[in-house]
Amino acid sequence: MEIVVSGIRPTGDLHLGNYFGALRNFLKMQHENNCYFFIADYHSLTTHPTPEDLHGNVKRVLVNYLAAGLDPEAACVYIQSDVPQIAELYLLLNMNAYVGELERVASFKEKIRRQPDNVNAGLLTYPTLMAADIIIHRAHKVPVGKDQEQHLEMTRNFVNRFNRMYKVDYFPEPTAYNFGEELIKIPGLDGSTKMSKSDNENSCLYLGDSQEAIRKKLKRAVTDQGPTEPNQPKPQAIENIFNIMKAVSSVDTYNHFSDLYNNCQIRYGDMKAQLAEDVIIFTNPFREKIAELTADTEYLRKVARIGAEKARESASKTVKEVREIIGFKSF
Ligand code: TYM
Prior knowledge:
Blueprint: E1 3-8, H1 16-29, E2 34-39, H2 41-44, H3 51-67, E3 76-79, H4 85-94, H5 99-103, H6 106-114, H7 121-124, H8 126-135, E4 141-143, H9 149-165, E5 175-177, H10 211-220, H11 236-248, H12 251-262, H13 268-294, H14 297-326
Parallel strand pairs: 1-2, 2-3, 4-5
Helix pairs in contact: 3-13, 4-8, 4-14, 8-9, 10-13, 11-13
């Protein structure tokens, strides 16, 4: 049985990028594998959330996970900070992670650009914490979106370095996973290639968005004047709308608008209205369950407690074995 691990930073509700890039894969795997799905609240401290925001966002992500179909009886669902063994493994991995390689990571360079006043050590060592998250359960597969590819490559580097250094074959090499297909990147509504809350809140469609919010956001989604010649390649913003449509609408709907585009007869207003209705249909079941679960604090507490216990059991075993491999001995 393969071990699967994935996580999401608690930044509020999950958007379609999170769903199609990571969660959907995980949902398909949760009954056939040994699955761990967690909320990466240690990671979120790199942006200095307030205590209220931190807890509120963890709750919202947990509710979103469960509303989307994560089954806490099948998978282990937990909150990262409930498993302090991850922090210990992170410390140990940091001793064999080099500043040079960490400085070259694209997401670190991006963060320096975006938050020049808060370039903390946590940002630099983000990839070692992420590696610790994955190898704490000795995972094989990590269902994630395309943006996490480089982090997975770093994880493999750390794993190989550890195994080589201590002449063991202890950690498996984990791979980013999307059912044998290319990893996915869902675009934003603002013309950007990635739907991302930290880039632009309005570029995102959330699982819990109201029907009005979805219609409004899609109405405002960036398009252009339309094609002037048949069968032309689509500009980025238009390609984005088509890609979101590919994810949520039927093949017939997608082909219908694609044909209209190719014949220069497309009216983006019609296309976006259709897409809004399809997103609404797609998100309806999530919306209802999100409201239900948000009110059920008792159930959420139970899920988090059981998940923490199970995750700690697996994590303590790994940390104990790693300590032995490294050479820590008690007197
Ligand atoms: P995060 O919180 O930014 O996103 C969570 C997951 O959603 C995917 N994702 C997307 N996929 C496709 N298109 C998009 N527009 C899009 N936006 C987000 C991400 O690829 C990710 O799979 N570092 C991670 C969280 C993390 C983690 C881990 C993941 C921490 N430790 C260990 C896996 C294993 C992150 O910031 O994802």
